[in-house]
Amino acid sequence: MNNEVWFRPLVWMDYRLAVLFTVVVPLFLLLWAFVQKAEAIQRLLIIYWRVSSLLLITLYLMIGGFGVSFLSSWIARILIPLGLWFWIDLNEEIEYYPNSLLKLIFTSWRWAVSTYCLLGAIVFLPFLGCAFSEDGIKTAFCRIWLEAPRMFKEYFHPNVDKAETLGLIGIIGLIVYVIYLGYFVLLKLGKKGRSALQ
Prior knowledge:
The chain is mainly α. It has helices at about 10-35, 40-65, 70-85, 90-95, 100-125, 130, 140-145, 145-155, 165-190. Helix 2 (about 40-65) packs antiparallel against helix 3 (about 70-85).
């Protein structure tokens, strides 16, 4: 039974922190950056949303009960900090951006979400086995991670009878994400390097 899993409250706390750090705060910051016309912060946050879309894809994969969702969750936790700190030109622009409350809160969030994701990636390592074992995902150890996504389904997709249907949307999203990431790494990265502006 999932009730017997001792770390259940920690898993739910992780989902709550994820909503705060990866959805609410960056959405607020993006709107603020547009109002303030802070272009470098806008660009970096748009890149962030592209990268972090893997979290939404993971959510739908977990609704469908697909083991690959555990792998995509772990990879998202690595890619988010990478996407936030990779760009030399944006880092320099933000560093020399005039001191303001927006810059302070953005910088604080950037460090906080990077720390949260990297620590999360380390803590999540034992659960990667759930991605590679058909029987593993049926255990309480793995299924505990599917509870919050299933609750999301009940709130936002109550009329969808089969969770597998939403999981299929996750699979399609993952394929598109992998193609786009492959295109960026194999073609664009060689031309642009660590510049987001070219």
